[in-house]
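Final paragraph of the annual report: two paired records, presented back to back.
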Amino acid sequence: MSSEAKQSGCIIVQGDLTILLETDHPLYEEARDVLLGFAEMVKSPEYIHTYKLTQLSLWNAASAGLSPERVIEELRRFSKYEPPKIVVSRILDWGKRYGRVKLLIEDGRFILRCDDMYVAAELANTKAVAKYLIKRLDAVSFEADAAYRGHIKQALILAEYPAEDLAGYRKAAPLAFDLVSIALSGQPFALRPYQSEAAELFHANGEAHGGHGVVVLPCGAGKTMVGMAIMAKLQTETLVLTTAITAARQWIAELLDKTTLSRGQIGEYSGDKKEIRPITISTYQILAASEKHRELINSREWGLIVYDEVHTLPAPVFRMTAELQSRRRLGLTATLIREDGLQNDVFTLIGPKRCDVPWKVLEKSGWIAKAECFELRVPLAQSARMDYAVADKRGKFRIAAENPNKLPALQRLLKEHAGRHILVIGLYISQLTEIAELLNAPLITGKTKNSARDDLYRRFRDGEFPVIIVSKVANYAIDLPDANVAIETSGTFGSRQEEAQRLGRILRPKPGENRAWFYTLVTSDTVEEGFAAKRQLFLAEQGYPYSVVN
């Protein structure tokens, strides 16, 4: 590539593994979508976005078939300058580590095979790995304890040798059913092209390298449909784990509406019911609550376990999943971001990222609503300034989040969007209660009974309530297709995945203009500004710039 051609690029690759991307360059969108495949966003000010190459981002790329050489080729294609040699070296080293160790079943034995004798020697002397090895078979192979398949994979990733798991799956109970072309509701039904592609990538024609992994799609893009498509391909009994009973019942409704399954074949395992059937829908909370409920996992020969909103997995379910490596595992999420840094465990125990469609790609095709994002900065109320001045950082955040001056700003937005379906979302119940009383609007919190919650959501969908107030319970898996305005009054500090989930509540495609508006109210000149900037990083990576309005 000539020096002149490089100068026309839109990225600069730096020796510290960061990548700078110019947002006003003609190649910006193309480069952004390519970078999403092998790099992580760090920050996104107005003109220059920063990405970072990490081991995990390159291992995910390798598992998706994107070789280190191809990553380097793409960097050179978009770069103003030749990437530093140290970066090229790191990409080759990290990227090629994926798959240097393979897990296999041969002659009924669980085998760990390395690609050369030096890796084998290193692992034989790595205590965290060696304790699971039964005996050495040859210069590059070991027989290992199959009961610790997940634990071995965790130990290997700590040793920086992420395993390619080709050990396959144990025989599962069959279950014959099909997707329908006319839903129970009477509406025509067919998978969208990207949904079919996601299902194919996960299934991998039934081969051993498929059957485990994560599908990443925006909220509103139909991740449940992908899950059902995979279930129909596998034709096996399935356990679906969700974030809440509302989400579980939405799965049941969709399965009844769009498949040939009967109600008698679908069970709800929750605080209200304990039905174990060929397709069973449960919640993470139930499984995390006690060992008795976790016995549900061993109650049937499940051929597939679906982890809805996989980025929310609690620690007890991670531990359980380490022992479930002989069953197919599907993770569904809008973002793999975890604020606790446990992305490695998702990669290791559920599987690598199989599909990740950029949000803006689906928006351009009309599959999700076109959203505009705004950060409205509101001055801190005079009455709160002294309390803010003397508070610690956590106290400052809460004072800023509950700033009384947000209420007039909220009322102006409601007036501006009168006639639309509006969600007001927040963290602090005291603030939400005040807003609900001010607007004479229903409030839904974690204490709202499921039956009352479902009824309020139904009445909102029917237009009886133009506005509903919701706490963190609305962060996940709530089907409100007509909601087209979301106003965030407060959030969980700098949680990027929460911001993405909240925008997702209004992204379902809508008839007509297919537009949505997302507002976050931020108290200016306070710590809330910094947290808001961090919350917005993932959405900025997806191409959603925030317009800042004072």
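The closing record of the year follows.
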Amino acid sequence: MPVLILAEKPTAAKAIAKALGQPKENETDQGVKWYEFTRSGKKHIVVAAVGHLFTLKYKKGTKGYPIFDLEWVPTWSASKFGAFSKRYFDAIAAVAGKADDVIIATDYDTEGEVIGFNILRFMLGREDGKRMKFSTMTEEELQESYDNAAKHINKGQAEAGMTRHYLDYMWGVSLSRALMNAIKTAGRRFRILSTGRVQAPTLHMLVKREHQIKAFKPKPFWQVEAHVKIGKENLKAQYEKDKIWNKDEAEAVLRSVKKKAAVKEIRKRQIMQQAPKPFNTTSFLTEVYRHCGYSPAKAMSIAEALYQAGLISYPRTSSEKLPKDINYRKIIGDMQKQAKYAGSAKKLLAKKELKPNEGSRTDPAHPAIYSTGKAGKLGEHQQRVYDLVARRFLATFGDPAKRETQRIILDIDGHNFSLSGVRTLEPGWTELYGKYAAREEILLPDVKEGDVFAVEGAGMFDKKTQPPARYSQGSVIKEMEERGLGTKATRAQILQILYNRGYVLGNSIEVTDLGMKITDVLEKYASDIVSEKLTRHFEEETESVVAGKANMDEVLNEGKNEITKLCAQLQKKEKIIGKALTDAIIEAQEKQSILGKCPKCGGNAKMFRLWHTHKRFAGCSNYPKCDFSAPLPAQGFIRALEKICDQCKSPMIQVQREGGRPFRMCLDIHCPTKKDWFDKKKLVSVIAREKLQKKEKKAAKGS
């Protein structure tokens, strides 16, 4: 009887089989590969799932809300989006029947445990199996994981994962249905809306910042600077008050700046900057966004690919610690074989002791994210993310960096002005981190107290206080973690949902009118839906299930009670809520559809959608008097920029596609700015589509 090893993804199945034996590759009729090998005289079969093969769904015929009557069903049967998983489902069913032992080798976290546990009980008729636990896909660790496989799966982790699935599904489907029912009562406009246990408070957090920005009233202030000649350099010295709130005072200071500046005092301070901590998921996503510009969802997708290739450790972790048993010296030795890291690795290997600068956060399942030292052929985006992880890993072992700050206080006619500088004395870990540790260097000339220099001029500047900054896609993930919203595995996904629903847009996250109105309605009529405290409470309860301190059924019953209460609040005000939401949808759709002024007649260039293909195009509100038309990108959230193109004078728009950086374009397909966008065949196709759009628009107007 064979041993069946269940992997989470096809790439993992191949890596596991290769690490444990000399596998024979097989393929099902549907094109799914599985592997056979013999180890210690026993036949082994390795086959892969493709993420969750089972998902929650409310039972057929369920009406109204709240919805608690749920069941686990095959993902391929739940929706068309899960249809691709059926061939993997069938592959496991075909090879698993005669297995003697089963080893779960999915990712070792709550999601991986749920994936494995559901396959065990629903497909194999088992409640338990052995468990491989690994944090990298290197051959050495996979072999060790197999040799030391646990006799049982982690039931606490599986129950915690199922608890979160039940809570999120019940919360999301019940409250989303409540919103949709409210809209139906108004009967004026249809749009799919959604909310959720983590989604709603996250959006509310962003809306609160938006309200702060809009309510902010700038306050004027003035700054004064003096231009001082020291040797050959002309330096700008700042007045001691960073903000002067009275214009008369600022003008008086400006008038008093004469011809001489005397060095009154020189202040120097040395600071030691410790090496950075190892990456956990949050710090990793934040740094990837800062240095590479990739959204959290895209960054996590790239990290997953690097992990599956055996180049980095498991990227979903709360830990800031690197255990000694991963063998620092061996990993750095392997990195030395890569020319890019050879110099840095050599410096570290010369140390008597390798000790990383660890943080305080831990994770029971996985260490901090680190490079395995292995090399691989990578695409541009993968290489950028891998380089960041590799250099961060090296930098954690570096010596402190020594920096010196210097401040020269100048007396100019009884007023204090200052020159500020900073320089690196000992680079330490910053050399290992490379470009990611770039620090400003402002070198000041050598002077001594009592020196007198010429003042060659002065300036006064009108400024205003600035509103709170919007969250970036990196900083919002960090803020979610600090507030206890979501988990390391779900935060990037939650943020992406907000973009996909059109609730937020831009790299500097701006809440749309629709997102603002929905949140304001929920806060007014059912404030607990947007409560961070309630969401945080259930996150803590779910974590307690992992530790065995809470029972899944008890947590779910508490969740059902809260959902029932929230649904009752929405139902009580259903007509009022429906009207408010519908008004918000109509206003948002009308505003969003206007892309700018028509370049032909000055009317409104609006976004339309073809009824039979659902493709989008821009047309003029004055049709049929004006026949302006232009194709639009088929995917992504489109936003008017209220600007016109310098070349063609057509409106400019911004397009935000899922997981990607937004890009800007004008509406005119023939604009010189697009000369490199199309080859001749594609351009002919675009022109033909333009003609079809005009015909369909004309037909639609006539019907």
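The CA atoms of residues 121 and 295 lie 36 Å apart. This concludes the annual technical report; the extension proposal builds directly on these records.
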